[in-house]
Amino acid sequence: QITPADTAAVWDLLHSPAAGLNLTDPPFTASQTDNYVAFIDTLHTNKSAVLPYIDGNGLQPAKFARAVIFEGGRTVPISQEYMIGPLPVSNRTRIQKLDYIFNGGKGGTVPFNARFFDLQRDAASEPLLASVMTEVADITTELFGGVYYGADDDRTDLIYTFDTPVSTDGSSAVRIVMFRYPTEVEFLQPLDFYVILDIPGTDPSKYTLRGIVTNEKFFSTVDKFRQAYDAGEITNPYPQPRDYEWAQLTRKEEMGTRPLENKLAPQSIELGGKRYKIDTQQNYVEYLGWSFYMSWTRQLGLMFFDVKFKGERIIYELSMQEATAQYAGNTPKAASTVYHDTHYGFGAQSAVLVEGFDCPFGATLLNASYPDGRHTTIKPQAICIFEADYGFPLARHRTSSFGPFQGYGFSDLGVVKASALHVRHIATVGNYDYLFDFAFNVDGSLEVGVRASGYLQASPYYKTQGRFGPRVHNSTQGSYHDHVVTFKADFDVLGTKNSFQVTELKTVKQSQPWFPELGEFDQMELQASNLKREKQLNFAENGQAMYTVISERTNAWGEKRGYRITPGHSNIHLTSPNSPFSRKQSEFSKSHLAVTRVHDTEPYANSWQNINLPEAPQHDFAKFFNDESVEDEDITVWFNLGMHHFTRSEDIPVTLFTEASSSILFAPQNFFDRAQEGDLQNRRWIETGEDQDELNF
Amino acid sequence: QITPADTAAVWDLLHSPAAGLNLTDPPFTASQTDNYVAFIDTLHTNKSAVLPYIDGNGLQPAKFARAVIFEGGRTVPISQEYMIGPLPVSNRTRIQKLDYIFNGGKGGTVPFNARFFDLQRDAASEPLLASVMTEVADITTELFGGVYYGADDDRTDLIYTFDTPVSTDGSSAVRIVMFRYPTEVEFLQPLDFYVILDIPGTDPSKYTLRGIVTNEKFFSTVDKFRQAYDAGEITNPYPQPRDYEWAQLTRKEEMGTRPLENKLAPQSIELGGKRYKIDTQQNYVEYLGWSFYMSWTRQLGLMFFDVKFKGERIIYELSMQEATAQYAGNTPKAASTVYHDTHYGFGAQSAVLVEGFDCPFGATLLNASYPDGRHTTIKPQAICIFEADYGFPLARHRTSSFGPFQGYGFSDLGVVKASALHVRHIATVGNYDYLFDFAFNVDGSLEVGVRASGYLQASPYYKTQGRFGPRVHNSTQGSYHDHVVTFKADFDVLGTKNSFQVTELKTVKQSQPWFPELGEFDQMELQASNLKREKQLNFAENGQAMYTVISERTNAWGEKRGYRITPGHSNIHLTSPNSPFSRKQSEFSKSHLAVTRVHDTEPYANSWQNINLPEAPQHDFAKFFNDESVEDEDITVWFNLGMHHFTRSEDIPVTLFTEASSSILFAPQNFFDRAQEGDLQNRRWIETGEDQDELNF
Ligand SMILES: [Ca+2]
Ligand SMILES: [Ca+2]
Ligand SMILES: [Ca+2]
Ligand SMILES: [Ca+2]
Ligand SMILES: [Cu+2]
Ligand SMILES: [Cu+2]
Predict the structure, then answer these.
(1) Is residue A316 annotated as a catalytic residue, yes or no?
(2) What does the pLDDT look like over A9-67, one tens digit per residue?
């Protein structure tokens, strides 16, 4: 990560006349036709430079920053990304276009229409929106008891949200405005009123009204809408309540109390004290055989590097890459919405964790920081680290007896305690709170989990649209949507040379000389093979395959040492592979797994501004799959967690973490010669006495 | 459950001359040609009798016992099951054949060849086995350093296990003996030596040697085997070690220690004290809105009845029904093994739980009991009940801001604590320890989980048989196998009239007047329909369907109130649907879900002695599916948990609970008008001060 001093120095360098970028500073004073810095962040260091440094005697690689600059002042306005380094800033530091990590053909360039919809673009389209809404103010007053004369007008008592993506290929832009009541729970208070604007380019005089939608009807002009309204064709049968306490996550006295619930809830406690060590300078953690480094970026939040167990590297990089959400509906907003939440920044949108609630009492809470303009913002207590009870023993056996017996009925019983170190953060991206949890288990397994709470992005309720979700409040439909959260796991199991083995479980015909009466009969067998070429693939039906990243090195029994990728809860991909709103910029979300060769040019599954380019992506994950061999090579596994969010009334006020959960587990598979419980001291070995009524610990 | 006094009185009644059953007492003095009691247990009470009693003013139903009697003394020897009641025993008590719960056509009758392979059958085939092994004692000495002259011979230093099923349709029986070293870890010390005996009927003079198998070769006579041995064709290239400490679940000093691991591991603690109440007389539990009754039987272990949340019934009965395990291999034992572990008894094979390891410190430990002959055996501390931290918040939202901000960066943050009451027991059925865990969550959801630890049932290692599992020790192969654990959930959501709704997630063509440029495009939608007829079905690929048990009663928003069945970890069915060893007696394990109408005649998925009748089942689950309507009727859902056990070296010494895990979740789906977190007091609502650097709790 770059330092606050680096960030300030890079900021100053970019704004220096010598840079020739002609930037407006501070950016909030800029308009969309100015040039200004969108943000500065750390640029990752290429793996090809890191490995010689950490594993050999290579030099420490130079650090670089990246900067996105909105260049609205150009003849053809664009967004352009740059790399700045080496850092710290010196006379050797150069500002270069950052192109090599984007494979869409235009490098770090994004057309204006597709760039992040910031306050400047908002301001440019505001006059047209305000004028349309002013024309219909009498009608919105009657329908919703609200008006919109513009955001800065004191009479305005409606707010709105808008569509994503706003463009398909960057050649045009459409703004779909859906109004809401201006409360803290706006996500649950949608109004059935949509204004659609065409807003191509940077010249607001070319912006036009496409139409108004309400009552499932489209009106291409204000006049046509008014005619329908005057004819009594427009109604509001399910008025949205103006009050909103029902949707706040506060205690509801009217729901009463449950007996004994006033007592403090149970809690996992580090009874024996801390069993992990954190080097906060290096962001380095050690825990019962595990060791890893952590990093934090504005877009991706928490990332892990150089993950080792008992001194052997398992994973070079483990990181969340993207959280896609696609909605279903028959309204201009719900039908078209696809979010990439890194667009808003998982690092930037993380914040304080509540001890005892978000993380157990006694957890270690760490700050996170990221560059925010020229400054570096510190997120206090945004990451927590704690060791928790696994809830189940790790290993257990009791000798048993089938005959009749009394007393304890066994001769010996062994049981070993399981626990895991959790690293957790929560990013609240608008309506949703994503909880990311990485659990390092004492047996050498590693579980990655994500859960979702927070508000539904709801739609107005229509009696006729049950196929898009249930009614969850008086005037609110819980719009069905997919969540797909893409991760990268660059496994380096005992080095970079790995293969991806698929072991299918098949039924074949078998015959045996000792069972002549059976002839040929059905028998299960394992059919193992290495994936030959880069591929996106799905978990087999009924779990009938095992997926393992293996090394050619073998354990004591001659089996290839590997780590297994074991599905957990809700391992899904996007439902609809060919929606115009997620067609080419979301390819990473369309399979359960994907295996590619590692290249310095392909560090990320997605790019920050891909979201508005479904038909002409800046970065196309599908292009990673160019038939390269993935056998005994440096490979990366990409995988998806997520939920098909079948919305329900119990999503009000917020979705529950208990059900909106997804996970995956990486576990040793013939990696060791035996289970790694043998060295643990938190265990019991119990023998019974002669009469089996006595226990000896 | 019947009382110890009932059990003794039933025992005495069965053995009374008046009963006319001519029973040998005590049974261990009997031979296989005598009549004797196999066991007595509680017979469940019919639901049709229970509901009027608990919900109306019906009379308390009469209690009955069931008894399995081995009638080897008959002309056609059989096993016959009886029902005895009403209890307590009086002059009104009758002994009747228990036929009505078995649909195979022969009621409670099981042919001798298929009956439980008890010590009496063992004794009858022992002379033949001993004579064969005596003939080859010189060879087994050279190959394995061991001999078998009979179980009671002092020189004998080998033990054996045998096959399951031993019969296919009851017309014959085959005994496949696989030898092992006689240690506590015998399951991991198989020897490559098999003796196969044909043992039809009760007359040992008709028992014959089918052959000997070793080195993947079959020899139909001892002479042929000796010829091959003399010709040097029989070897033991991977000798099984005689020592066995490597396979014991003890600490291994030679593996060293991990830094800080000497400290006590973390633990979930009931910090606020007990928040649940147990009525140990009624086996009735109340916990934060939940209430339920528990029962315990010899075969099935723990069962739940009348499960309610906030006073409304969700489930009438929730119980484990069967644990099937099917193995793969090319040896006489592994290739043919299918276990039904209720055959050995989950109630009978449960035992003491270790506080702080199997269950948290402070858990409530309850005894379990079951009839064992005339007596009642008490299993001390076999069930634990505790409340645990969920590990994640229940619900959570922070208001967020996309603009630049400092400090805590939000206006308010709500978070609610999640916890669950766990009811747990562990049954050790020979090699395997099954941990059953039922978690009642504060949001009204209920999770059922099963985990497996304990020993692999391993095979001798063959270089050529990698397709059946890896080598896991010098001479030991971890034979691949399926575990499928079948459960019954008789949902009675707001009464007995329910439907089973399947909501499929489909991509369809959509067009919208406000997007003329898109024409027809792909859009997701939900297609909901009720299952019309009884059916076995599988979870949809990629999770693209929701399964809900619904009532016709609606919530405040007009949505039908229901409980959703949500897949968790590893929801699988048997791999091989048409194996001769699991063909018709294991139908319940061949789909993820099944929905049937409730009948008093169909309380169980399986019968106790079905295991040895794959071709002529005593009880055929497939017959439940006779095209009855399941719409707005009293329906039961059957579901399977389990694991495809891709064995690994890390299964040594024992399989780890952390990875061998399966679960399912039942959760309210529009059952309430909103989430049931609103009444919880274990929560935080935090508002920031004006400068966002101050938190107000
Ligand atoms: Ca490639
Ligand atoms: Ca790699
Ligand atoms: Ca039926
Ligand atoms: Ca029912
Ligand atoms: Cu959602
Ligand atoms: Cu297993």
Answers:
(1) no
(2) 999 999 999 999 999 999 999 999 999 999 999 999 999 999 999 998 889 999 999 99
* Number of domain units in chain A: 3
Quote the ipTM score: 0.96
Residue range B656-663: average pLDDT?
97
Count of CB atoms within 10 A of residue A128's CB?
A: 19
For residue B690, what are the CA distances in angstroms to A686, B270, B412, B583, B696? 60, 37, 12, 71, 11
pLDDT reported for residue B694: 58
- In the DSSP assignment, the letter for residue A517 is G
pLDDT band at B365 (very low <50, low <70, confident <90, very high): very high
CATH of the domain at B173: 3.10.450.40
- Which chain A positions have a beta carbon within 8 Å of B175's beta carbon? none
Pick the closest to residue B664 from B546, B563, B569 (CA basis). Answer: B569
Within this chain, do residues A440 and A564 fall inside the same structural domain, yes or no? yes
Distance CA A40, CA A25 (A): 14
Contact A83, A68 (CB under 8 A): no
A297 and A211, same structural domain? no
| Residue B690 domain flag | no
Residue holding tokens 């009444």?
A: B679
Choice between A377 and A472, residue whose per-residue pLDDT is larger? A472
Of B45, B66, B98, which residue constitutes the final position of a domain? B98
Three-class DSSP category at B490: strand
Helix (H), strand (E) counts: chain A: 5, 38
C-alpha distance from A228 to closest chain B C-alpha (Å): 16
For residue A551, give its domain range: 276-392+421-669
DSSP classification of residue B193: E
Count of H-run helices and E-run strands, chain B: 5, 38
Tell me which ligand sits closest to the C-alpha of residue A500.
2
* In a shared domain, residues B495 and B582: yes
Quote the tokens at residue B29: 């003095």
Instruction: Give residue B305 CA to ligand 3 midpoint distance, Å.
Output: 22
pLDDT band at A695 (very low <50, low <70, confident <90, very high): low
Buried b (16+ CB within 10 A) or exposed e, A635-655: bbbbbbbbbbbbbbbbbbbbb
- Report the residue from B332, B393, B435 with minimal CB separation from A358: B393
Pick the closest to residue A641 from A615, A666, A613 (CA basis): A666
Q: Does residue B589 carry a pLDDT above 90?
A: yes
Q: Is residue B16 part of a domain?
A: yes
Question: Is A477 at the interface with chain B, CB within 8 A?
Answer: no
**Type of residue numbered A623:** K
8 A C-beta contact, residue B638 and residue B504: no
Is the same domain home to A239 and A288?
A: no
In which element (H, E) is residue B466 found? none
Which residue among B523, B644, B681 places its CB closest to the CB of A543? B644
Please name which of B636, B625, B578 lies closest in space to residue B603, comparing C-alpha atoms.
B636
